[in-house]
Amino acid sequence: MSAPGGLAERIDGAWTTLSPQEQRVAGFLRSRPDESALYNSSELARRTGVSKATVSRLFRRLGFAGSQEARELLRAQRSAGLPVVVSAEGDRLAAQIATDGDHLRALEAGLDRAVLRQAAVALAAAPRIVVIGLRSGFPIAMLLRQALAQVRPDVLLAPAPGQTLGEELAGITAEDVVVLVGFRRRPAAFASMLAGLSRTAAHVLLIADPSLRMPGHRLRFDVAIESTSPFDSYAAAASLISLLAGEVLLALGPAGAARVAAIDRAYAELGELEV
Question: What is the DSSP letter of 174?
Fold first, then answer.
């Protein structure tokens, strides 16, 4: 038997064919997708009050050879970005920090300094910057926009609430820069949007993870986001944003420093920040 899809989809598709005992196990798995990768057949039988044979029959009905194959599917889904607990053992905080450290060291080793400087010069010189981040890319895009707005004017975060990208990109010129941030589990239209942007006259700066297989972008920065937790970690991405914005400030020279000072004076006059 071959049943495509993830664990939840397989359960939903087979539900009406399952016995009451099998439905008990399936319901347990369906309601706890973030824990399912942790349990073998014996543990599932104990937790649901059924026999191990019932658990084995359920997995066969779902198209798996056994619980191990189902657990491997969940781990593969986690590797693709699905939030799933795949380990409950050990010091999870230490493992997370160690992984983030590995990603930061990989960023240092793999970052092309010449490309970083080219990107900074382009961002400093552009009449307008449009920063686009969808789904998990949005917080990183917002962080970049916030940093760049400290050192230069005309930095937009798109799309604005209630708008689509067409309104934001109309009038983009060959001197402008569009920054596109996209990490795994991207919207289905991401690739076509990137291809469309690449056909415009504007410079396109891409910040992504290695899962995006669209080579040929001169200004592209890849950061690792894998994590030992159920959720991806953006420590390296945030570090890249800090570094890139700092390079833009250096490229702007006195003009950047003057804007920083002007914004600081405005903060003080408006009483907007803690003292």
Answer: T
In the CATH scheme, what is the code of domain 7-79?
Answer: 1.10.10.10
Asked if 95 and 85 touch (Cβ cutoff 8 Å), the reply is: no
Domain boundaries, the chain: 7-79, 111-270
Q: What is the CATH number of domain 111-270?
A: 3.40.50.10490
Strand arrangement of the beta sheet that strand 220-222 belongs to: 155-158, 129-133, 177-182, 203-208, 220-222
Separation between Cα atoms, residue 90 and residue 97, nearest integer Å? 13
Find, among 143, 227, 138, the residue nearest to 182 by Cα: 138
Q: State the DSSP string of 71-122.
A: HHHHHHHHHTT--------S-HHHHHHHHHHHHHHHHHHH--HHHHHHHHHH
Render pLDDT for 19-57 as a digit per residue (tens, 0 to 9).
999 999 888 888 776 566 667 888 888 889 999 899 889
Q: What share of the chain is helix, strand, coil (3-state, %, to 5)?
A: 55, 10, 35
Residue 1 amino acid letter: M
pLDDT single digits (tens) 130-185: 999 988 899 999 999 999 999 999 999 988 877 777 777 777 888 899 999 999 88
Q: Is the dihedral of CA 39, 40, 42, 44 positive or negative?
A: positive
DSSP state, residue 226: -
Identity of the amino acid at 271: G
Q: Which residues pair with 271 in a beta bridge?
A: none
**Rg for the chain (alpha carbons), in Å?**
24
Phi, psi angle pair for 177, to nearest 5°: -125, 130
